[in-house]
Amino acid sequence: MSELAVFGGTPIRTEPYPKWPVYDQRDIQAITDVITSGHWGGYPYPGPQTAEFARLFAEMQGGGYAVPMANGTVTMEVALRAVDIGWGDEVIAPAYTFQATAAAVMSAGAIPVIVDVDPETYCIDPKSIQSAITPRTKAILPVHLGAEMADMDAVTELAEEHNLVVVEDCAHAHGAKWRNKGAGTIGHFGSFSLQSSKTLTTGEGGVLLCRTQMLASKAASLIDCGRPHDEAGMLVTMGANYRMTELQAALGIIGLERFPDQAKHREKSAAYMDEALSEVPGVRILKCDPRLTTRSFYQYVFAIDPKVFKVKHDAVCYALEKEGIPCEVGYEAMHHYELFQPILSRLPVPSAFPAYFEFSKMSFPVAERACESDAVWLDESIFRAGKKGVDDVILALKKILANANELAQALIDK
Ligand SMILES: Cc1ncc(COP(=O)(O)O)c(C=O)c1O
Fold first, then answer.
1. Of 12, 119, 182, 293, which residue has the fewest beta carbons closer than 10 angstroms?
2. Which of the residues in the chain have pLDDT under 70?
3. Among candidate residues 133, 186, 184, the one with its CA nearest the CA of residue 163
């Protein structure tokens, strides 16, 4: 019989990795307190839990004015709208991200201009940003992907040179720091998702970190049906209800209590993973940039060499899963992404500016290669399972490598 679990062999790991999200009596008590208070929703905004969560979140991230919201997509739309970026303006975003990054740009009425990523980090490539800047460019939307951060020195320099707004998509980057500055506090805005898979979660939810109090007031107004949130009560705008509820914020406060300890564990395991993976043939770990002073581990992304593994990343991930290792191939490149078909859905922006959405004419080789053959995303739970959690990943990869011919042959036979 084959050694590989995918062909009926014994899996490397049978014990499940720890579940996410985690909770304890504190969460239950916090939710009970909100329920009995009668103040469940987000109005009037911010409620006491939401205001406290905002304060603690900004403190944890190391700056900015936090505005909690419904999710980590509207956060980006609101950021753009708060600085009057809208109809026909261009916003540069990377090809390797969740579709929400580009969808939020279109919800604001602006045009997502997709560019390639850096092969060493899989985050937006500053050279590609430079060549995509036009007189219509108004903002850059770097995404801090997996455990990496975009090169914020280069992004900031380009933004200053061309007078552009920077909205950091920090959906994966809670607690991450670049040159000891928190993700989301370097650009004008930092957009965080608190959706249930994220390392800080309120079930659903998001937070927008704003550089100034004035921007935060505008953002609060936009998510609170246009009600004024500036001190003078003068700033009135057209808004909608994107408020965070008190129930969500209460979970966020408890989540923040646990976060530093969890982050420490993940960092320790990930440092061990870096070392161990570096010794596996056909595996390339992403750049450990010394400027990225604190990493955060929503997912740990690495690249395989399909020539060495004799199969692409989807077969490796499938075999890893069967060995008991939770992982995935990650996103598709934005221009190939099934979910990202804005022309088909007849959205206003692609209908009005179709030339920007001719995906068949676009080529982003680095993102395409990551998405189609190389990238493997290891689940965050692996990094809460101690040394053995990491060792099992390495054993499983080595086992797959040792049986690569059999895996490749099975795909040919299929
Ligand atoms: C990179 C990125 N940006 C934005 C989002 C959107 O966040 P949400 O699901 O909270 O709207 C996600 C969520 O998975 C994401 O991974």
1. 293
2. 1
3. 133
- Distance from Cα 193 to the centre of ligand 1, integer Å: 6
Q: Does the model's pTM come out above 0.85?
A: yes
Give the residue carrying structure tokens 């975003």: 93
Atom 7 of ligand 1, residue of closest alpha carbon: 72
SS3 124: strand
Q: Which residue has the tokens 């850059």?
A: 140
How many whole angstroms from its chain centre is CA 188?
18
Reading the block at residue 87, the tokens are: 């109809």
Span 89-119, pLDDT tens digits: 999 999 999 999 999 999 999 999 999 999 9
- Contact yes or no for 223/78 (Cβ under 8 A): yes
What is the Å distance from ligand 1's center to 275 Cα? Answer: 29
| Edge-to-edge strands, sheet with 177-178 | 181-182, 177-178, 292-294
Euclidean distance between CA atoms 158 and 59, whole angstroms: 28
Pocket test for ligand 1, best of 99, 143, 195 (most atoms within 8 A of CB): 195
Ligand 1 center–CA 30 separation, angstroms:
26
Read off φ and ψ for residue 126, nearest 5 degrees.
-55, -35
Contact 236, 226 (CB under 8 A): yes
Q: What is the largest CA-CA distance in the chain?
A: 75
Phi–psi pair at 333, nearest 5 degrees: -60, 140
Q: For residue 97, how far is its CA from the centre of ligand 1 (angstroms)?
A: 9
CB count within 10 Å of CB 18 equals: 14
Closest to 167 measured CA to CA, from 146, 186, 148: 186
Q: Which residues line ligand 1 (CB under 6 A)?
A: 71-73, 97-98, 100-101, 143, 169, 171-172, 193, 195, 206
What pLDDT digit, counting tens, does each position of 358-409 carry? 998 999 999 999 999 999 999 999 999 999 999 999 999 999 999 999 999 9
Shortest-distance atom of ligand 1 to CA 206: 10
User: What are 409's two structure tokens?
Assistant: 């042959």
Are 336 and 368 in contact by the 8 Å Cβ rule? The answer is yes
pLDDT digits (tens, 9 = 90+) for 47-60: 999 999 999 999 99
Supply φ then ψ for residue 66, to 5 degrees.
Answer: -90, 135
Sheet holding 90-94, edge to edge: 65-69, 206-210, 189-193, 165-169, 137-140, 90-94, 111-115
Closest CA to 170 of 153, 150, 196: 150
Element (H, E) at 304: strand 299-304
